[in-house]
Specification:
By secondary structure, the protein is an alpha/beta fold. The chain has 15 helices and 14 strands. Bound molecules: adenosine-5'-diphosphate.
């Protein structure tokens, strides 16, 4: 059995999954959060959740347990967080000291123009990821804290960085270049990089596999709609256009991010409302999107508000759909047609109303959703277009952790 530990670390929390890459199943997963949180009177208090998915039964064969263990304790930094995680593995299983993983895979948001492939982490790679924090101040520092803690916890294992930007290395210059002063842009590495690449890659490959069609022949549009949201046009397996830009702020309306906005709004707010750069950053990244419009950041709450006739929720939902339709039409034009459209992530996999609304004006392009199929729920990949639709529309559950585990193993086996 080859197990890979996948770590997705932010500045105040990290998620992990131990994945058996032969069966492609998670053996255990967990979340360590509120790292360094000083909000409690007793000092820093963190929360660690550990879920065991499978345990060996009496005869040694795995049985599903899905038992979850939660503890609250001080977690001042990532190193302590990793010690708590290791302890949970030893106490609740599966024991990492008895059956260590073969490698550790790390999700890293920004690989800049430097990292196009999953990369074995060396001290020099760490320095480069740190240096890329200039482009991703909200994301790369947390990833680096996770990498350092994990390398200290598992010094003998290969550690591999898998970058969210990597899949978009194939964007043509016309798609990634902003129309601003070229010298300035080059000096400050200002261009579109694109994100959620691991998910867009996984979903587009899974869609081709599901349809039994060669990836190279397909024009695809993938909507990854979670708290963060992006859409990618994929031609023959290559990303050719994507909605996120130099940072994950551009593009679709998201849970708390504005997506596209006239940059002059920022000049105006700086001049007229005396907002600082940090105020504007927080406004657009943390207090905009559906949260800014409706007061709630969770799409389920927005839909409940729509049903209750709440005008703010209704407007938020309509703005959200309007942007999705604009991107769907744009990517149809960029690709010159499409064979498959897939929806993934929390909203994309669960909201029939969003899926229907995103495509409801595209009947003229041969895109027809079957209402009953769209409403039906179930695990795995499923078709939601009609049999006569010229374009196949799918719901494809994403699995970024599995994709990271598979890419990590390829590099570690190197
Ligand atoms: P993240 O970007 O944090 O990984 P997820 O992919 O988990 O996000 O998606 C989270 C989003 O999915 C939330 O906005 C949540 O409201 C939404 N979501 C989950 N289930 C449903 C549902 N049944 N209907 C509508 N939205 C849902």
């Amino acid at each position: 059995m080859s197990a890979v530990l996948v770590v997705n670390s932010g500045s105040s929390s990290f998620k992990y999954q131990l994945i058996d890459v032969d069966s492609r199943m998670p053996l255990a997963s967990g979340l360590v959060e509120r790292i360094g949180d000083p909000s409690t009177s007793s000092g820093t208090m963190g929360v660690a959740k550990h879920k065991v998915h499978f345990a060996a039964s009496g005869d040694g064969s795995p049985t599903v347990t899905d038992a979850t263990y939660v503890q609250e304790l001080p977690i001042p930094d990532h190193a302590v967080g990793f010690a708590v995680m290791l302890d949970a593995f030893e106490t609740h299983g599966p024991s990492l000291s008895e059956a260590p993983p073969v490698a550790v895979g790390h999700r890293v948001v920004h690989g800049g123009a430097r990292f196009f492939e999953p990369t074995l982490i060396t001290p020099l790679v760490e320095i480069n990821i740190d240096e890329l924090s200039v482009l991703a101040p909200l994301h790369n520092p947390g990833a680096l804290q996770g990498i350092r803690a994990a390398r200290a916890a598992f010094p003998e294992l290969p550690h591999v960085a898998v970058f969210d930007t990597a899949f978009h290395q194939t964007l043509p210059p016309a798609a990634y270049t902003y129309a601003i002063d070229r010298e300035l842009a080059e000096q400050h590495r200002i261009r579109r990089y694109g994100f959620h690449g691991t998910s867009h890659k996984f979903v587009s490959e899974a869609a081709a596999g599901f349809l039994g069609r060669p990836l190279e022949e397909l024009k695809q549009i993938v909507f990854h709609l979670g708290n963060g949201a992006s859409v990618t046009a994929i031609d023959g397996g290559r990303s050719v256009e994507t909605s996120m830009g130099m940072t994950p702020l551009e593009g679709l309306v998201m849970g708390t991010r504005s997506g596209d906005i006239d940059p002059a709004v920022l000049f105006h707010l700086a001049r007229r409302a005396s907002l600082s750069i940090d105020d504007l950053d927080a406004l657009l990244n943390k207090r905009s999107g559906i949260l800014g419009l409706s007061g709630v950041g969770d799409m389920r709450d927005v839909e409940a508000g729509v049903d209750a006739g709440d005008p703010d929720a209704t407007l938020a939902f309509e703005v959200y759909l309007h942007r999705l339709r604009a991107y769907a039409g744009s990517y149809l034009a960029q690709l010159g047609g499409v064979d498959v459209i897939s929806f993934t992530a929390g909203v994309g996999e669960n909201s029939a109303r969003v899926r229907a609304g995103a495509l409801d004006t595209l009947g003229f392009a041969g895109i027809e959703i079957d209402a009953a199929r769209n409403e039906a729920r179930g695990p795995g990949i499923r078709v939601i277009s009609t049999d006569s639709s010229a374009v196949t529309v799918l719901v494809v559950p994403t699995n970024e952790e599995l994709e990271i585990a598979l890419q990590t193993l390829t590099v570690a086996a190197g």
